[in-house]
Structure formats: C-alpha cells, structure tokens
C-alpha cells in the first residue's frame, strides 16, 4: 500500500519562472510522493526561457500554466507552502488551513536578468539548478514513508 502523496504549493509573484520551475522539478524528482502546484500573487505568462531550461534538463513542461493564488485559496489543502521569492512572502496569506509547514526558499528572479540572450539563459539555468538542489533536499527530508519514487 503506497502513502498518499503530499501536496506542495510553490508561490511566487509572477508565477512565470521560479515557481513554475519548482512545480515541474518536484514532479520530476519526487515521482508519486508529492503533488506539485504553483501560483502567483500577480501572475504573468510563463516565461519562454523557463520552459526552455526545463526541457533541456529533460523535465516535462506538460500542463504548466500561470495561475493566480486565488485559484487555490480555500479550495485546495496543501501539506507545504513553499515561497520562492521575498516579494511573494510579503504579499501571501499567512493562514493556510491544514498546512504542515510554510517554507521560504528565496531565489533570484531570472526573468529580471539583464544582458545578452545567452547571459539571460545562463541565469535561468543557474536558478533552475539551485531550485533542483533545494528540492532534492526537501524530498529527502519530507517524503512520506512508504511512497515509491
């Protein structure tokens, strides 16, 4: 009998880069141990370089879309809320029914990177890799017992 997957919501301001990466990467890393979602306090379309750096790392981008936090507030219950930017932390609701923990993993906003297209792409890769490392640690610490990969 397998454990029920834990639901994780990644929050950011725009839901265009960091939280999208985290949603896709958690699905990729954790298999059926977690259900991953993302949303933004002020959502913008998913940044094309977000999709590019995920795909080049072999991570599925199927189903990724920008979502407003209100889509989930009071409608979904999450085991963990993970805030990936300080601006979202300042604007997020502080009370979430049933949440086991709210975590703050702040990453630079790759969408704000300046420079050539290659320099911007490099920043997206750097943030992707930072998020991946953080999520590998998160999964090791919080995966439900008895869940398969």
Describe the structure using short key phrases.
149 residues; alpha/beta; Rossmann fold; 4-stranded parallel β-sheet; 4 helices; 4 strands; 36% helix; globular
Commentary on this structure:
The chain is of the alpha/beta class and 149 residues long. It has a single domain, classed as Response regulator (Rossmann fold, 3-Layer(aba) Sandwich), CATH 3.40.50. 36% of the residues lie in helices and 15% in strands. The chain has 4 helices and 4 strands, in the order βαβαβαβα. The chain has a 4-stranded parallel beta sheet. The radius of gyration is 15 Å and the shape is globular. The mean pLDDT is 89.
Chart the SSEs and their pairings:
Elements: E1 6-12, H1 18-30, E2 34-40, H2 48-56, E3 80-83, H3 86-91, E4 101-104, H4 117-142
Parallel strand pairs: 1-2, 1-3, 3-4
Uncertain runs are none
| Average of pLDDT | 89
CATH superfamily membership: Response regulator
When the domains are counted, the total is 1
**What's the gyration radius in Å?**
15 Å
Query: Which architecture name does CATH use?
Result: 3-Layer(aba) Sandwich
Structural class: alpha/beta
CATH class: Alpha Beta
Count of separate DSSP helical elements: 4
The major sheet is characterized as: 4 strands, parallel
Order of helices and strands: EHEHEHEH
């Amino acid at each position: 009998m397998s454990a029920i997957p834990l639901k994780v919501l990644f929050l950011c301001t725009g839901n265009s880069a960091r939280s999208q990466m985290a949603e896709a990467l958690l699905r990729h890393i954790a298999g059926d141990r977690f259900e991953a979602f993302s949303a933004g306090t002020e959502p913008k379309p998913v940044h094309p370089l977000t999709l590019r750096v995920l795909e080049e790392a072999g991570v599925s981008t199927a189903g990724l879309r920008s979502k407003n936090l209100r889509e989930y507030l009071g409608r979904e219950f999450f085991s963990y809320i993970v805030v990936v930017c300080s601006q979202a932390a300042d604007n997020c609701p502080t009370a979430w029914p049933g949440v086991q923990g709210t975590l703050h993993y702040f990453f630079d906003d790759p969408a704000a990177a300046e420079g050539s297209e290659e320099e911007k792409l490099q920043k997206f890769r750097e943030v992707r890799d930072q998020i991946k490392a953080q999520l590998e640690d998160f999964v090791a610490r919080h995966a439900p017992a008895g869940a398969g990969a």
